[in-house]
Structure formats: C-alpha cells, structure tokens
Design goal:
The chain has helices at residues 42-49, 71-77, 93-103, 108-121, 137-149, 167-180, 193-199, 217-224, 229-239; strands at 2-13, 16-27, 31-36, 57-62, 65-66, 78-81, 155-159, 185-189, 202-207, 210-215. It has 240 residues and is an alpha/beta fold. Bound molecules: adenosine-5'-triphosphate.
C-alpha cells in the first residue's frame, strides 16, 4: 500500500514556485530520503504533507486521507521531528515526555507506560532528570524523536535529524532510526549523502520544486554511472 500519494502538488510564494506540480508515491513502511540543494523545495513539500501550509493546487493522500479535505485525520497519522527541536528547554527529559503524553490526552497509566517505553527504546535513562536545555545536540535530537513517537504516528517526518552532530552521535542516531524502520513510514530530509545511503530504501532528488530522480541509492548510482553516491547526486543535480 502507498503510505503517501502526491498528485500535482504545487506551492507558490510571491514570484517563486517552491513545489511545482509534483507527483510521487511512497510505499508504507519504507524510509524515503528527500534530497536536494538549498531551496529545492523539500521543507515546503513536507510542510504541505504535514498540513502546516496549504498548497495552491494539487493534493496529497496520506493513508488515503487528503491533506485538503481530511486535515484532522492526516494530522492524527503523522508526527514531525523538526530541525529546531520542539523540546521545552526548562523542563527535564521526563517532564518533556510527560508533557507530550498530556498533549495526546493519555491516562496516567498510559503515560507511565509510554515514558517507560520511550526511555527504554531511546536509552534515555542516564538523562531522565536533566534539564532538556542542558543536553548535548545528540541527546536533544534523540529526545525530540522520542517525543514525536509518543502519538504513535504511522508516518514520521525527520527534518535533517543529524544536522550539526559529531560522527559518534550521528552514528548512534542512525542506529536509533534503523530500529524504527519497518514499524512506520519515515520521510527524512538530509544534506548528508552518507546518511541517505546508510538509512534509505528509496531516495527522491528535488530541484527547483520538481522531482529530478527517484530510486534506490543503487539505482541512482547506476543512473549517474558512478559508484560514489555523493558524485551521483552532484551529477544528477547538475544535469537536471
Ligand atoms: N515562507 C516563504 N516565503 C517566501 N518564499 C519561501 C518561503 N518558504 C520557502 N520559500 C522559498 O521557496 C523555495 C523552496 O524553499 P524550501 O525551504 O522548501 O527549500 P529546501 O529544499 O527545504 O531548502 P533547504 O535545504 O535550504 O532547507 C526557496 O526559493 C525559498 O526561498
């Protein structure tokens, strides 16, 4: 089944077509990496899919729910872990998780269970009572993803999840993301080609609001006639 079906989606800002009649299907349970140089339209596309901004034309269906006419159902299906983490810096890690359970109107019992589950899944025990604002970047991103998962989304958007992290924190977060694969559909944006290579089942490369290429990392290397994925990306973007 398609988790996401995008049909002719278009978003214009004054004088700029940020997303231009885009068609795309993303299969359920896959990790889809959305790549493109700055200004390609990735964030705008994700914002439309997450019902944060309205398209000018076209539509997209998440589990067959339209972003135009079934907005609440779409919002119930998804969760976002944004670039700017949505954590409350003055609250502890536990309080942040608790807050998110409150937003989801969980009972006291479900809240207890959920926090336990997240602490175990994301190995948060060592920082549970630390103020979130005092955490390192790697821990903050891990908490941000844990918080995004509390609502049990079917589709998770990860916007540049390892931006600014050191290589060790990045590799640990990759392991965390790998553990989420197959449990939900994940749409990931990144500027790190090795990240797309390590994690994705499918890759879409955007340029000027359009989809330039679509396929597995292997497919795109073959398309660009190279064994190096970064080189393949450059060849495709420059050629398109
Ligand atoms: N709110 C806005 N108002 C006007 N123009 C915008 C707005 N948001 C985005 N744009 C423009 O739309 C185009 C696509 O931007 P978008 O942020 O979607 O690209 P991106 O691929 O996410 O880039 P990056 O990799 O830098 O995050 C750019 O030309 C950008 O300047």
């Amino acid at each position: 089944m398609d988790a996401i079906r995008i049909e002719g989606l278009t978003k214009k800002y004054k004088g700029i077509v940020a997303v231009d009649h885009l068609d795309l299907k993303i299969e359920e349970g896959k990790l889809f990496a959305l790549l493109g140089i700055n200004g390609a339209g990735k964030t705008t596309l994700i914002k439309m899919l997450a019902c944060l901004t309205q398209p000018n034309s076209g539509d997209a269906f998440l589990h067959n729910k339209s972003i135009m006419s079934n907005r609440q159902e779409v919002k119930d299906l998804i969760s976002i872990s944004p670039q700017e983490t949505a954590i409350a810096p003055n609250l502890s890690v536990r309080e942040n998780l608790d807050l998110m359970c409150g937003i989801n109107r969980f009972s006291k019992q479900k809240t207890g269970q959920k926090i336990k589950e997240m602490v175990s899944q994301f190995a948060l025990a060592p920082v549970l009572d630390k103020r979130a604002g005092k955490l390192s970047g790697g821990w903050r991103r891990r908490l941000s993803i844990a918080m995004a998962l509390i609502s049990e989304p079917k589709i998770l958007f990860l916007d540049e999840p390892t931006l600014g992290l050191d290589v060790v924190a990045r590799s640990e977060l990759w392991d965390t993301i790998k553990n989420l694969k197959n449990k939900m559909t994940i749409i990931l944006t990144t500027h790190y080609m090795e990240e797309a290579e390590a994690l994705s089942d499918q890759v879409g490369i955007m340029k000027a609001g359009k989809l330039l290429a679509l396929g597995s990392v292997h497919d795109l290397k073959v398309l660009a006639n190279t064994t190096d994925f970064e080189q393949a990306f450059i060849t495709i973007v420059k050629g398109g």
